[in-house]
Amino acid sequence: MRLTEEFLKQRKACKxxxxxxxxxxxxxSDLNHIDEVKGDYNNFVSWLKNxxxxxxxxDKNGNLIYSKDSDGYWKESKYDENNNLIYxxxSDGYWKESNYDENNN
Length: 105
Fold this sequence. Notes:
Elements: H1 5-10, H2 15-23, H3 44-53, E1 55-58, E2 64-68, E3 74-79, E4 85-90, E5 95-97
Antiparallel strand pairs: 1-2, 2-3, 3-4, 4-5
């Protein structure tokens, strides 16, 4: 898999990070070799390495429903038909359930 501007935008990379990736030839590079990148730019390369090794899943409305970071930390969420967060759980053991009335309160 190659690093693309779209990949960075999907993961909400900052504008400066995207410009850095363009200016230093990272766009188009093989993501399997991201660990070979030396140095960092305001923690952008560290962030990018984590993003490459992480997993994210979204529901049909674009809500993040599952993520797992490169260090093994995970979290999962469920949303109702109004995109209200109704359930959250993470690998630390924290969980929360929420209920909403007909006014989404």
